[in-house]
Amino acid sequence: MKNLRAFHALCLFSGLSFAVATLPVYAEQPAAMQGMDMSSSAHAGPDGSTQAFKAADDKMMHDMSAPEYTGEADKDFVAHMIPHHEGAIEMAQTELKYGKDPELKRLARNIIKAQHDEIEFMHRWQAKHGVK
């Protein structure tokens, strides 16, 4: 029984040590991206998909930060969602190019269509409201 308690204490301490050791890395990431490792060395595959996903992510993050906030929620929402949707399209195109799973490829095609439709809607909204 004493050994079992010592084992449980060691497991608890090891778990806490792991959590504390990983906390600073987790806390440094933007809230929306926490837990995602988008570095180019993470799971870099020989097929080039990692570079394509990273490029799409980098472009999306840059473009989402580019529009200045106006203080008008509707305008800000649309201005920042358009590059977000464009990033989703690029990622889905990468899945179509490199992916193997037929269900994920079907999902990627659906994402591309839906995101295109929503981008068109947002552009129409902007034009109707004199934005851009």
Automatic annotation (TrEMBL):
Pfam families, per database record: DUF305
Domain DUF305: 40-125
Alphabetical list of Gene3D superfamilies matching this protein: 1.20.1260.10
Signal peptide region: 1-27
Organism of this sequence: Paraburkholderia metrosideri
Protein name per UniProt: DUF305 domain-containing protein
Coiled-coil residue spans: none
Positions of region (Disordered): 37-57
Keyword Signal attached: yes
Annotated Polar residues bias: 37-52
PANTHER family: SLL0788 PROTEIN
Record keywords, A-Z: Signal
